[in-house]
Amino acid sequence: MASESEERRVALVAEDRLFPVEGRSRDLARALYDEVRDLPILSPHGHTDPRWFAEDQAFPDPAQLIVTPDHYVFRMLCSQGVPLADLGVPRVDGGPTETDGRKIWRLFAQNYHLLRGTPSRLWLDHSFQHLFGVDRRLSAETSDWYYDHIADCLAQPAFRPRALFERFNIEAIATTEAATDDLRWHRMIRDSGWQGRVLTAYRPDGVIDPEMAGFADNVALMGQQTGFDTMTWAGYLDAHRARRAFFIEHGATSSDHGHPNARTEDLPQAEAAALFAKALRGDCTADEADAFRGQMLTEMARMSLDDGLVLQIHPGSRRNHSDQVMGMFGRDKGFDIPGRTDYVTALRPLLNAVGMRPDLTVVLFTLDETSYARELAPLAGVWPCLRLGPAWWFHDSAEGMRRFREMTTETAGFYNTVGFNDDTRAFCSIPARHDVARRVDCSYLATLVATGRLAEDEAPEVARDLAYGLAKRAYKL
Asked: Model's pTM, two decimal places?
C-alpha cells in the first residue's frame, strides 16, 4: 500500500492515454499526435458565457467554476442520490440551495469516485494536472487542499478568463445566444480592444418552437427589436433576417437549432403562413408545432444561402425528462436523454429544396449512434450541403469518438465531417476535450496506416485537418 507521501505525488493522467496498445500502432499514434498537439483550438460551437470575457473578472470559487455549472458532473452525482441543491444548482422555484463553495466542493470530492471511467474524470484530471499543477488525487482527504490550491490560483491574474483563453491557445470560440439577445457582452468584448475572437451563434429556438414557453411573447419582442410586423408571416421572416444580420455584425458564422427531431418541411407559403398564425394563437396540435419547426429549418436554410450562416441541427434530445427537476431547477439540468432519430425521411424536404447547393453548409449532429452508418454517413456522402458534426454530448468520449470514425469514414470519408467542437459550458475542460479528440483521431489514423488503409505520408495531413483545418473551413473561421 502506498504511503501518504507517495499518494501525494501522482500523475493524474497517463502520458500515452488513449493510444493503441500494439507497439507499432502506438508509435504511429504518438508521432501523429506530436504533429497536432499544439495546434490552436477552434471551438466553433459551445456555451461558455461571453460575460466572462467581457468583464474579465476572477472566477468566484472552485465549486462555481467546476461543479455547479457542469451537468456532466452533477447528473452523475444526482444518479447516486446527491441532491442538486446541495451542489449549488440554482432553483427557479425560490427554494434554498447551498451557496458555500467549500461545502459544495467537499461533497463533490467525497463522491469523485463516481466519475471513474467517464470522460468527465479524464477532463477533470487533465485540468487539475495541466492547468492547476496538481499532483495528488481528489478525495475526501484532499478536498480542502484542492479547494485552497485552486482558489489561490483563481485569485491570480493568470487565471482570469482572457488569460486562460490565451493560455489555452484558443484561436476562436463561439458562444450561443437566443435570437432576441441584445449581445451586450459581445459588444463589450469588441469595444475593449482585446484581440481574443469570441463569436456568437444565432439560436432561434425560442422564436421557432411553438411549444416553448413564451413563444408568442418572444416573437413580439423580435418585432420590437427589428421594426417588422412579426404578427404576419412575411414580417416574421424579415425579422429573422434582420436578427441574423445583427448576429453576423457581432461575429456569428453559424446558427444552431436544438429541435426534438430532424423533421423538415417545405410547405407552400400560404400553408406556412396559416400554420404560423395558429402557432401565435397557441392553437397548434403537437404535430402542427412539429411541422412548423420543420418548416422553419427549411426557411433558415434558405436564409443561409443569402447570408452565409452555417446551419447546425441538434435533434434527438428528449429534454427535461424529470418533471420535478424541471419545476425546481429549470431546463438543462442533466435530465436530457437521447432518443431514436430519423434523418432520411425527415431531412428530405429540406434537401430537395436546397440540398444540392454547395454554397450551403448544414452540419448534422446526433445522439442516436444507430444512425451513423445507416443514415448519416450515406446522406453526407452524397448531398453537397451536408456535413457530419462530431460525436456529441453522451458520445463525446474516447469510445464514442472511435465508434463515430469507424461507422462514418468508409461511407462519408473525413472531408464530409467538420473536425471537433467541444459544445461545453465548462471552460477549463476545453483543452482536455480537444486533447482527447486529437488523441483518439490520431489513434484511429495510426490503425488505418498499420492495416494498410491509409498511406503513412498522408496521415499527418489528415490529422491536422481533423484537429484544425476542417472546423476552420466548415465554420468559415
From this structure: 0.95
